[in-house]
């Protein structure tokens, strides 16, 4: 096969796998930022907190990191409910959620990062499952399980969330609260309760993303910083409240980054990927799968 | 929003500083009662991306201070460390040094770790004509040309010509002369200078550069870089990277079964215990820049004792478990200060600078002198190779043989094994 074609195919495949990790990181944010309009800038930090927790529990019990990530998700759901409770009480209820709410989540992010340094030290932590060292080779295409397994978990989590939002009553209520909280109140559903539940879900998803992150790379307390720009960009490009849009944007982001890195150098990757975001917003301000207000 | 955010940052910084001060008080309970201590002030990365090395540096300083105080201090005065967390944010550094010098009125300032944090402190220090003893900077004073700057680091003055010398000396050990090289470097000052040195030597030796790219520190997936390198079929690979990316690059090279004759260069990361513990046998035959290895050729007086003490404290302080990278040099930095003060008999910034320019220092990392620019007059960039690694145990890194020194010739302790990716 032509060497350039091999490079291109591998760039696309590795980009799709990388996009899987981005999808895992962005799905929770699609709920909190996209649906609830809460600018949770601490989402990547919560993901890293989830990753540290996975390392701690997984090492102690000898369990697979992805399994631990799923098992610990209910605890993070409760943490999300707690965080939303504080946010709602001090900011949202007073109508000060815009700027002061952002400052609140900035503070949460910083506290998580410093807290992790205090608790675990600043060193990189890792938990490599045995399959992280296996690479499947299909023809000329490499499929490292280190990237494939987290991508599959991300897809599964995203699919489950999509079904929940489309098929269950509370799921539909979450979608409704994103559109019109007052209308929901008229239907005798407490929008604060629904938002609390949805925010809890978004933090639970951050925990699952943390498990995916540990398999892909070692983590340190500041690992979340490199994801902040990307996950918000993916949410916006996908169309805020749209989960299929989030997935598509994440995969597109990964492919554009990796193909650019392969052929034009990795320095261009972020510029080209974020350039795509600008292009999409120029022609579809509502994002790839978003609806015009 | 800015106001609130800064306030939150400020409060947390204060909390971190108090926590830090608490650590000092815990280590030196007697200090609180000591009158007129010599106060040594510095910023240090205790959180953020450089915190791993920052905290290891701090622990080395604390060990030194404890020993000095147990001996009765310097010039009859105990030493006290006054430090603040710079959070690995260069923007915070000038403010910290202004506070240290103008508010805390410390007697002496030393630097944060490392190049990116030292540079923003320089103008503040220079305005006050203070002698500045730095740790692991790389060519910071090339721009400032400050005659009271002294840097404890093996890289020396002319990084472009000297940094990669050892790597190409190792390449010359290959059975067939290498014909091509691939170079990749993260976008930061140290790595870019390292890559520049590799380019300089490759051109000087007529080695064709088949790949030469930089990458941003925010890169997540490194397989495109390795795959693009692989397509050029280089004999040599020179990478200049920091810990998070070193990890991704080594992992990607193994996943793609990349086996050049020499793979390595200026990776920062493989020197650290967490990296060695994670990668184990995947490190076999990696040739990389280093500063210390417990080989017989580097058994300087005092280094083994220091490392033993450091390793006893490291688990509790949650810092690098082995201390084979920066800690001996951080301790040597403080020995340098101690030797200067003892010689001149007073705290006098001009006299300290004059002494540092004139004298040789005898430390646990060996003897060295400073050049006119305050770098090591004789560079000592080590290029080591991981050999015979069979598992992820760290004990082997406390003994000779796991990380043999290939260059410089004066410290050589083993022979090159090739290619990368072959069993070690």
Automatic annotation (TrEMBL), chain A:
Coarse class of the protein's main subcellular location: membrane
Keywords for this protein: Amino-acid transport, Cell membrane, Membrane, Transmembrane, Transmembrane helix, Transport
Name of the featured protein: Branched-chain amino acid ABC transporter permease
Transmembrane segments: 12-33, 45-63, 69-87, 99-121, 147-165, 197-219, 231-256, 263-283
Subcellular location: Cell membrane
Family: Belongs to the binding-protein-dependent transport system permease family. LivHM subfamily.
Record flagged with keyword Mitochondrion: no
Topology with respect to the bilayer: Multi-pass membrane protein
A Pfam family matched in the record: BPD_transp_2
Automatic annotation (TrEMBL), chain B:
SUPFAM superfamilies associated with the record: Periplasmic binding protein-like I (SSF53822)
Residue ranges occupied by any Leucine-binding protein domain in the UniProt entry: 37-371
Keyword list, A-Z: Amino-acid transport, Signal, Transport
InterPro entries: BCAA_transport, Leu-bd, Peripla_BP_I, TAT_signal
Domain of life, source organism: Bacteria
Coiled-coil blocks: none
Entry annotated with the keyword DNA-binding: no
Transport among keywords: yes
PROSITE patterns, alphabetized: TAT
Pfam families registered for this protein in UniProt: Peripla_BP_6
Similarity remark: Belongs to the leucine-binding protein family.
PANTHER family reported in the protein's UniProt record: LEUCINE-SPECIFIC-BINDING PROTEIN, PERIPLASMIC BINDING PROTEIN OF ABC TRANSPORTER FOR NATURAL AMINO ACIDS
Protein name: Amino acid ABC transporter substrate-binding protein
High-level lineage: Bacteria, Pseudomonadati, Pseudomonadota, Alphaproteobacteria, Acetobacterales
